Amino acid sequence: MGLLRFSTNSTDALKMTTKLKPGIAGLILLLLQLSGCATPSERFESSAKNLGLTSIEIIGEPFRHRVYLNQTAAQSDTIPVVHVYLDGDGTPWEMKRWIAEDPTPRNPLILRLMAADKEPAILLGRPCYYGLHSTENCHYSLWTSKRYSTEVVESMASALRKWLTNTKAANVVLIGYSGGGALATLLAPYFKNTSIVVTIAANLNTSAWSRHHAYLPLDASLNPIDAQPLPAEIKQIHLAGVKDGNVPASIVESFSRRQANAVYLPIDGFDHVCCWADLWPDILKRYIAPSFERPN
């Protein structure tokens, strides 16, 4: 399936709209106006810079990955623990009909979570996200049917392994929002120093999620609930919004029940977006920080 594209020649486009029905002409003019604005990747980058984050590129196998670092992570060579954030699926589809050219999330919620984190923290980007959608080896299947595929997970693991080698982090905490939560559980077994996995409104059963939305199944992706339970030494915290219509809390709960060392936290009044950034400092303090506190 091809991507929806329009001519960048505005004069020709304006002439064309005069021959179309008013509703269609208005839609095309709106899309042309939006095309002159910043791209989703540019807006995300601007948000990251405003929060004091820096970005680097790391070559995985075989994809390139954008990695954002907070100041604590960027200035440290050897650190006891690093919080690795993994973002949601972003916008694989435009208006649920056309494959997006740039899947980068339009809502930078993950950056707001990182901004509240005082520990060394990085955001590990997926292949083709954050301005890399036109780079070598990128294909739209990587943010649609293959969004949680083995090739995506292994390239992300390769990129993270390279960064960890340079920083010598002793412990890794994987923190995933929405689809990033699925990737957090899939990445955890790749690292012996994974100590905690935290998921937020996470798609932990892709088959149930696809049925819930009447979507085509993600047959080219891995399904977290079908994987072997994570080792008992990895502590897990799985948060779900009771009012979440995107990823129902029952999906998160069913995954959590299969795990050896998991805490399931349903939050009343929360949906898929609201109000995780407000709650996040308390989650960090209550559930993550105590695991690394030194005894007196």
Automatic annotation (TrEMBL):
Which residue range or ranges hold the Fungal lipase-type domain?
A: 139-195
Report the superkingdom from the record: Bacteria
Gene3D superfamilies for the chain: alpha/beta hydrolase
Q: Name one GO biological process term.
A: lipid metabolic process
Q: Which Pfam families does the entry link to? A: Lipase_3
SUPFAM superfamilies, alphabetically? alpha/beta-Hydrolases (SSF53474)
Name listed for the protein in its UniProt record: Fungal lipase-type domain-containing protein
Q: Which organism is it from?
A: Methylotuvimicrobium alcaliphilum (strain DSM 19304 / NCIMB 14124 / VKM B-2133 / 20Z) (Methylomicrobium alcaliphilum)
